[in-house]
Amino acid sequence: MHRGWLAVTTAAALAATLSLSACDKNETTGDTGDGKKTIALFLPESKTTRYEAFDRPLFEAKTKALCADCELLYFNADQDAAKQQQQVEAALTQGADVLVLDAVDAAAVAPLVNQAKQKKVPVIAYDRLISGIDYAYYVSFNNVRVGEMQGQALLDALTAKGSLGKGQVVFINGSPTDPSSADYKKGAHSVLDGKVTVGREFDTPDWSPDKAQQQMEQAITALGRDNVVGVLSANDGMAGGAIAAMKRAGFAALPPITGQDAELAAVQRILTGEQYMTIYLDIRAEAEKSAELAVALAKGEQPSAPATVDNGTAKIPSFLLDPIAVTADKIKDTIVKDGFYKAADICTGEVAAACTKQGIS
Question: CATH homologous superfamily of domain 5-141+283-321?
């Protein structure tokens, strides 16, 4: 399921996934008495289903496969930057040897990374680029390309429907504290600017589907229901919120709307025609590469990276994966073929007939 590298339930606070013998740690090296290493994974929130359903279990499984005696710590910040700060500080106090950090606020965590550096604990920025400080690695996707794909898909859909130039598009961007959001926005605008009229554009705190629904309701009120011909949504959860708003407003037919993350509900919506497309991210490759790097760093190794990304302070050794645009006709040969979801999980209830149409069984 790995692709080529190019230039991807709310957890209790401070809860470790495996037992930790912190009291046996050597304060300088972080080693336990028997030489075990501890790797800490920090994820930002659980509203986006990928984190608990995929990122966490895939990272943990790969880490244990590579290092059976490594100790694992897991934390979810519930979109709370202050909570994540406490979690990072707790992990450092407990003797973590490597931090894999998906920051709630990637522009504000440099002091936490600095705390780790002072303890000689390497940091991997996972999924979101941390700015303002140097660190070991960055593992993510080509985020500008994600936005370009979303913009092109929406442009193609508007052209096919004969709606191009006949109405206005609503942009529902991601969280302003996530630097990936700016990349998605940049990519989408590079494709759509000058070709569509953007009626309303929102940055959505916390990537919240509920807030996206409210924003879409505001846009419909301001623009008029019949004038909204397309929606550029940065991810699937927010697309779901926007769709709920449009249904509530009584749209005769839903306009094309984009997404990202290939959430199960979104895949089903694409098959039934409520959502036009999603961006499929090979989260397995992202999580497993991050685990490989974390284990290598814990062992004192430093693998070379195929690219660097400038975070404004330093050029960070980086592994960037290619995203994949998925419409209804591509679900079978991507999401199902890769085992991201089983056909039986997708093809339930009213979705079954749509699955049959696309040859998914």
Answer: Response regulator (3.40.50.2300)
